[in-house]
Design goal:
11 helices, D-amino Acid Aminotransferase, Chain A, domain 1, alpha+beta, Dna Ligase, domain 1, four-stranded parallel sheet
Length: about 375
């Protein structure tokens, strides 16, 4: 069984999840509510997702025997993070359906390939250039201008693996500090706000988008998401259309996030795609308590071959606040806030920059919701 359209699970079947972080944990909890079992594969013995499943595999992604045994115990495989090692994905794909499809990772794991893919669809992005040396970086700067953002092509997240280059910076020093031979230079975008669209797509091509979300970052880490984003309806529809177009072009099955910049220009705001995340996403956590179906349940439905839900927001405004590092120690103050729901991920000791939990707040409830 290798065709995504042939995957149709029934209650009691088992989903394999690669990755044991908070996203895997919340996927497993959503599956359990639908009567589906989950088995988590992670090399980290302290994975918080292990706490909510009956069966778990703690092994390295390079352990072929462990991967084969894991595949034998499940009916379909998904992942909570996009940097699944290619070799591991190949081993699993030969034995069980892997959704979203393994080839999608080849596009989304590489920022240059991803930008090329989006550009071929006729969707706007920041100007960008491939960079492999100090010399090519200088050439790219001449074409794109400064300020600009230099990013590793692979494995960067939460501000890691990137640097802003401004006039007067030591270009050679910036290149050396990134410690890579494969990077991409992107024009710095003077955006009005950052938004994202969480979209779900089924194997039959059904696409459902959640409300466009506005995102605020602090120290390159998402701090607050608000739904709906305070943008014109026409712009929100354009953003959802872009996300749907990307999902269709990828023949995607599951939930993905498309991060975008909103620009203000002479003819009115427009959007540019920043990044694609082929998984459930931090900016979609508000859906757990603020919508009729969460992003996690949508993902489970999609990979199980079940119909997607029609998301209905529960309030006029829904806010998600990440609890980062020591902020988790103040979880108690949120417990008495009207309309707030606290989610604690069950990780170990807090450390700076580590997402330890989040709080959702449903404000000014819509009448009857």
């Amino acid at each position: 069984m290798t065709d995504a359209k042939q995957v149709t699970l029934k209650p009691g079947d088992t989903i394999g999840i690669l990755g044991g972080g908070q996203l895997g944990r919340m996927l497993a909890m959503a599956a359990a509510r639908l009567g589906l079992r989950c088995q988590v594969f992670s090399p980290d013995p302290d994975s918080p997702a292990f706490d909510v499943v009956l069966n778990a595999t703690c092994a390295e992604y390079a352990d072929v025997e462990a991967l084969e045994m894991f595949a034998g115990d499940v009916d379909v495989i998904t992942y909570e993070f996009e940097n699944v090692p290619a070799a591991a994905a190949m081993v699993l794909d030969a034995r069980r359906p892997v959704l979203p499809k393994r080839k999608i990772l080849e596009t989304t794991q590489d920022r240059l390939a991803e930008k090329d893919f989006v550009t071929r669809l006729g969707i706007g992005t920041a100007a960008y250039a491939d960079v492999t040396s100090v010399a090519s970086l200088r050439e790219a700067i001449l074409r794109i201008g400064l300020p600009a953002v230099l990013k590793t092509r692979r494995f960067g997240y939460d501000g890691k693996g990137q640097a802003i280059i401004r006039e007067g910076d030591d270009i050679a020093k910036v290149w050396t500090s990134l410690a890579t031979k494969s990077a991409i230079l992107e024009a710095f975008i003077p955006y009005e706000r950052e938004i994202s669209v969480i979209a779900a797509r089924s194997a039959t091509g059904q696409v459902e988008c959640f409300d466009v979300t506005e995102n605020e970052h602090r120290d390159h880490i998402l701090k607050i998401s608000r739904a709906p984003a305070p943008i014109p309806d026409a712009l929100a529809e354009e953003a959802r259309s872009i996300a749907g177009k990307i999902a269709d072009a990828l023949d995607y099955v599951g939930v993905l996030a498309v991060e975008m910049f909103v620009l203000a220009n002479g003819t009115g705001p427009k959007v540019l795609v920043n990044e694609i995340a082929p998984r459930v996403h931090n900016s979609g956590h508000w859906t757990l308590d603020g919508a009729s179906v969460s992003q996690f349940e949508q993902h489970i439905r999609a990979i199980a071959g079940w119909p997607l839900g029609k998301p209905v927001r529960h309030g006029e405004i829904v806010t998600m606040t990440n609890l980062i590092g020591d902020e988790i120690n103040d979880y108690g103050k949120w417990l008495s806030v009207p309309g707030a729901t606290v989610h604690i991920y069950g990780k170990g000791a807090p450390r700076p920059g580590r997402k330890m939990g989040h709080v959702t707040e449903v404000r000014r409830p819509i009448e009857g919701k």
